[in-house]
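Our consortium's second objective concerns turning raw sequence data into structural hypotheses that experimental partners can test. To show how far this objective has progressed, the report includes one record in full. It was chosen at random from the queue rather than selected for favorable results. The single chain below, 451 residues long, was entered without modification.
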Amino acid sequence: MMKRSSRCVVPFLGAFTALALIVTSVPAQSQPAEPQAAIEMSAKSALPDVLEKITPAVVNIAVTSASSAETNPLYNDPFFRRYFNLPEQRQQQSAGSGVIVDAEKGYILTNHHVVADAGEISVTLKDRRRFAAELVGSDKATDIALLKVEADNLTALAFGDSDQLRVGEPVVAIGNPFGLGQTVTSGIVSALGRSGINVEGYEDFIQTDASINPGNSGGALVTAEGRLVGINTAIIAPAGGNVGIGFAVPISMASAVMRQLIEHGEVRRGRIGIAIQDLTPDLADALGLTDAQGAVVGSVEQDSPAADAGIQAGDVIVAIDKHPIRSSADLRNRVGLTPAGSQVEVAYLRDGKRGSATVRIEAERSGVAEAAPDRLQGAQFQDAKGSVLVTAVEDGSAAARYGLRTGDVIVAVNRQPVSTVAELTAALRGAAGTIALDLFRGGMRLFLVIR
């Protein structure tokens, strides 16, 4: 649809038994190593056994949606339409994959883009049973959707720990590429924490070289032990086909989204009221830190949960609820996907010393909008208590070329104060010629010139 570890414990008991019959006279400390052929045979038999148990949990999803018919000037003529009975819309069908994650309740995880604008959704199991599916909820920002079917004798996949994955671990992708039917491909974890695929979304992708093709979207990425660690979501395909670069949403993120979709039917994102940036090696050196992992607090909103908890500009946040924070995107994901009203333990470094604070998560405020496209195209903003927070900047966009960065806090346009996204948009559209943005970045005030 999209053009867009555990280690496997190999059973050696049979091989060891055969070996013992041959070398009973050899002392235990000098027994020879197990024959390589026996090891390979055990490894070959392990994965098929695992797949036989888990593949019934991966389903095919068929979506029927309505799309506008092609436009032709003649179609607007009432006489022409009357006598030729032209349709207003035509039915469009598409296919993807999904993963059963709760056999008792019939919950199925898939991608948002698989079921977006769906009129009808049907699910086909590996045993060829077919069911109509209900859309419980969908979240565009993480590309995760949750379906529900009424069916008996379902098989569900157990969750693995995607936070413990390591580069090089073997993984298997299961899905429905090109509508061919269920297909299994294998590879390794190529990279972790990938972002920049969807600049408007929440990203922490697992990258794999397991072959993923159109139709695999929403399918499973599993460990060699058969544990679900990701939902396959996208590929990089310069020529339209697989080139060995695929991406999956970590199950830690997908499960957090699923819980909110079940409870609310939507994702209610949280915030704590800070502007952040990555901890670069140069910045770490300047702060006297040996490790360049974490997120630097650039500014703290007054009367925000972070301010109430004592978080200060210049703090380096290194963990949320004991989950390590590698970057500003990592922190944004953790906070944004934590339900409003929750409390989290924030670990930080200040003047080289480690501290912690309990911070309340508040609901993300409305007011996210794109500025005037001819001025700062590619940037996203959010109201931030008397100022405007830059929440995302697309690489290569007009905003990026002018030097705007994620985490900037804009307070004025041509010395005219702006306190909301609406005021910023109006000021940008009403300004002629060169524009000076008055903003805070990393605790410092500066002007950014927009020509």
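The partners drew two points from this record. The chain has a mean pLDDT of 79. The CA atoms of residues 37 and 395 lie 51 Å apart. Both points have been shared with the crystallography group to help prioritize constructs.
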